[in-house]
Amino acid sequence: MTFIYWTQADSIYRDGTTDVTRTFHFGSPTDFQRECYTLVLKGYIDLANVKFMKMSFGPYGRELDILARRHLWNSGLDYRHGTGHGIGMYLGVHEGPARIGMTGKQPSYDHPIEEGQFFSDEPGYYEDGSFGMRVESIMEVKKFNLKYKFRNSVFLGFELVTLVPHEPNLIKYEMLSKDQIDWLNTYHKKVQDTIGPLLINTNREAYDWMELRTRKITYAVSAAPKEILSLLIILLSFTLVFVS
Fold it and tell me: How many helices (H) and strands (E) are present in the chain, helices listed first?
């Protein structure tokens, strides 16, 4: 049997609320399933990794929503739900006032993104009657000190507080950019360093499961087969010219 398994964990604890979704595949996914998952993952990473200047008039979440959708849109795909919602601490898992999503008209309750807010980052794709997939983590809005400092500016970005591995069996690594691979490696290293010590002496099976899904991605693995073939042809051509 081969199938996609989508699990979501929404829980409320004394120190906060969780809203986490991961998609796994048990078996051999189709090339289309892997492509769809990777498009979703690319948008999820791009939104989590963006830095933006804080303005007196924004930005609003609707202005960032395209980051999560653009790779799907470039392939003619989409998902029909919001990309991110506020996370309540003891109240609703879905809580305002700000959100990340497309709106035809600015709703009266919408609010700019502010430092200290928590949002979900949850793009997905759903094939009617066949399969569905989503990646969702919680991220905190934080102030970032970047390489340069534009006068009188404040730059914000997101830091993920969810530490759960992603499914390597569904990733087409050749579709990821170098920045996306670096982001994924950094994130998975944080999962290893934070969660690993809590599991290694208490639940070896869970530790091995985590370790398998957080191994470093090398650029050799992620290189596209067509690009490798083209490079070999070029190198062979230079060699033949040199020898002749």
Answer: 6, 10
CA distances from 148 to 39, 63, 144 (A): 31, 23, 11
Number of Cβ within 10 Å of residue 185's Cβ equals 15
At 44, list the tokens. 């999820």
Residues 95 and 86: their CA atoms lie apart, in Å, by 5
Q: How many degrees, rounded to 5, is the angle at CA 227 between CA 226 and CA 228?
A: 90
Task: Identify whether the C-beta of residue 39 lies closer than 8 Å to the C-beta of residue 172.
Answer: no
Q: What is the phi/psi pair of residue 68, to 5°?
A: -80, -25
Residue 100: strand, helix, or coil:
strand
In this predicted model, what pLDDT tens digit does every residue of 22-65 receive, in sequence order? 999 988 999 999 999 999 999 999 999 999 999 878 899 999 99
Is residue 125 within a helix (H) or strand (E), and if so which, with residue range?
strand 124-127
Least confident of 17-26, 28-37, 83-92: 83-92
CA triple 58-64-66, angle to 5 deg: 145
CA angle, residues 232, 223, 20, in degrees to nearest 5: 175
Burial pattern 118-138, b for ≥16 Cβ within 10 A else e, equals bbbbbbbbbeeeebebbbbbb
At 119, phi and psi to the nearest 5? -130, 160
Q: Is the overall model pTM greater than 0.85, yes or no?
A: yes
Count CB neighbours of 97 within 10 A. 11
